[in-house]
Task: inverse folding
């Protein structure tokens, strides 16, 4: 298991709380968490087409 300290856990939890849609990627090298990366997605509902009147 990766070497984890309180600072790393706090950073991961903070990023998770901010994320509504997207990804949280935790990179591990030699049993050590070396990077936390987030990708946030913005989602928009499509607007209905307006009917044209003649």
Result:
């Amino acid at each position: 298991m990766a070497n984890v300290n309180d600072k790393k856990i706090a950073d991961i939890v903070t990023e998770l709380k901010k994320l509504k849609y997207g990804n949280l990627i935790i990179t591990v090298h030699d049993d050590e968490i070396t990077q936390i990366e987030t990708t946030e997605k913005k989602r928009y509902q499509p607007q209905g087409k307006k009917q044209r009147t003649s």
Residues 22 and 54 are 44 Å apart (CA to CA). The beta strands are 22-29, 32-40. The first strand starts at residue 22 and ends at 29. The radius of gyration is 20 Å.
